[in-house]
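tl;dr need the bound structure. longer version: we got a ligand (zinc ion) that a collaborator sent over and nobodys looked at where it sits. i said id run it. heres the input, straight from their email, havent touched it
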Amino acid sequence: MTDVKKLAKKIDEYRDFIIDVQTQMTACPAITPHEKGGLGESAKAEYLLKVLKAMKFDEIKVLEAKDPASPTGVRPNIVAKYYGENRKKTLWVMAHMDVVPPGDLSMWKTDPFKVVVKGDKIYGRGTEDNQQGLVSGLLVAKALMDQGVRPPVNYALLLNADEEVGSDYGIITVLKKYGKIFGKEDSFIVPDGGNAKGDMVEIAEKNMMWLKFTVLGKQTHASTPQNGNNAFVAASHLVVALRDLYKQFNKKDRLFDVPYSVFEPTKHEANVPNVNTIPGSDVFYLDCRVLPCYTNKQVLDAVLKIAKAVEKKFKVKITVKEVINDSSKPTDKNAAIVKLVTKYVKEVYRNNPKVQGVGGGTVAAYLRNAGFPAVVFSKLDETMHQPNEYCSIKNTMGDGKVFLLSLMNLK
Ligand SMILES: [Zn+2]
């Protein structure tokens, strides 16, 4: 066994540590204070700071985002750094502290905020999302510190608030207000997404755009259509006309699991409550997931053109509003961190990892847009947000090994 492999093997000894940290974290329900009864991340952060301070980190900082809704007035984000031989460069593992509410309690077999361990599984809200990733990140530091080893570059944990509800008080504030903590050559692992096989190394996502269409005609009695203008009919034609987007933006990219852009009409708001009225307005939404080779602007221009034609033909007024308009730069598949994570996933899990893009909406997009290479990887059974959420201890250890081996081989 090489020295680095021996170093990683140490992680196998940390079962008790994993269970203990998972138990204490789960006992602090870090639900957004913007939800009824939510207490935010402060208590969980307090506990984690104790854990981090008991370890040999060289720097520990709390980056606060002001939030009057939080009982403490702030939402904490934690940075813990362990210096490497080259202090100009840092490998970050980014995880989030907040959890989603337990949902329907009758669906839980155990108390969601009291950990139950059964063999390899730790049950409780948050144990998988995102405490598994957080703990794997901790294991890397613990293994190095316990063996008195410095990595070739700095190793740091970034533990965020507010990931589940949009990251305003989390990574968005960290990048905006505390961006100086990051160096130009830094790279990130985000263990907050993956599958049960542990073979998905995610480096890109589609641009996401949600559009709201409001079609205005003229309401009238159903028996006298000549006196009105049926907005529902015009909206229906518009829905069909928008299918043309699939033809206009038909490029394929094998990196993505669905290798083309998608444009799907989804939500349709209720119009008139009674059957004998012709609706004067009709509202529906389009969910667009666009390959990075196109811009959202190109799609929006095409959408407006289609809407104009329907407006003219049906003599209605159509407004198109952007509800969400997010784009994300892909991480280069040749970036060092991508190559290393892929290599060590294969080695640790003996599988065939694929470098992949996803449909959109991961927290890594903020990092990629800020210019950092970011890899989303973890091996998970995908129980997040469900009742009886659990994490696997074996996966927690395996992911920790992947991160440690990648770190030790980063130059
Ligand atoms: Zn998550």
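gonna send this back to them w/ a short note. Residues 208 and 361 are 7 Å apart (CA to CA).
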